[in-house]
């Protein structure tokens, strides 16, 4: 199963918008989405800071700030 890690923070409108796309495409592809609140970890805050949302597919960074549905769909179909 493909794993999508979604790094986000509360109150982030870009995160809210991107999450809708990620959840829809993950459901269509049968992928698992694991959400991470970066503010819950000093390590994640240092790593991602203002870059959220960040999407990783099976450990490889796919996107940050904005998620293009078509590009994500293509990456999940490989």
Number of strands: 4
Quickly count the helices.
Answer: 3
Instruction: List SSEs in N-to-C order.
Output: EHEHEEH
Q: What fraction of residues sit in β-strands?
A: 25-35%
Low-confidence stretches: none
Helix content: 40-55%
The biggest beta sheet reads: 4 strands, mixed
Radius of gyration: 12 Å
Q: Span from first to last CA?
A: 12 Å
Task: Output mean pLDDT.
Answer: 97
Output the strand order for the largest sheet: 2-1-3-4
Describe this protein with a few key phrases:
four-stranded mixed sheet; single chain; 3 helices; alpha+beta; 78 residues
Structure description:
With 78 residues, the chain is an alpha+beta fold. 41% of the residues lie in helices and 27% in strands. It is built from three helices and four strands, in the order E-H-E-H-E-E-H. Strands 2-1-3-4 form a four-stranded mixed beta sheet, covered by helices on one side. Helix 1 links the parallel strand 1 (3-8) and strand 2 (32-37). Helix 1 runs parallel beside helix 3 (69-76). It is globular, with a radius of gyration of 12 Å.
Helix/strand layout:
Layout: E1 3-8, H1 13-29, E2 32-37, H2 42-48, E3 54-57, E4 60-64, H3 69-76
Parallel strand pairs: 1-2
Antiparallel strand pairs: 1-3, 3-4
Task: Put the structure in a nutshell.
The protein is of the alpha+beta class and 78 residues long. 41% of the residues lie in helices and 27% in strands.
């Amino acid at each position: 199963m493909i794993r999508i890690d979604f790094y986000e923070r509360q109150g982030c409108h870009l995160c809210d918008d991107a999450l809708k796309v990620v959840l829809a495409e993950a459901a269509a592809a049968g992928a698992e989405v694991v959400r991470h609140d970066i503010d819950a970890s000093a390590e994640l805050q240092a790593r991602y800071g203002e870059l959220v949302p960040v999407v990783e597919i099976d450990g490889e960074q796919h996107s940050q700030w904005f998620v293009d549905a078509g590009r994500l769909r293509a990456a999940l179909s490989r």
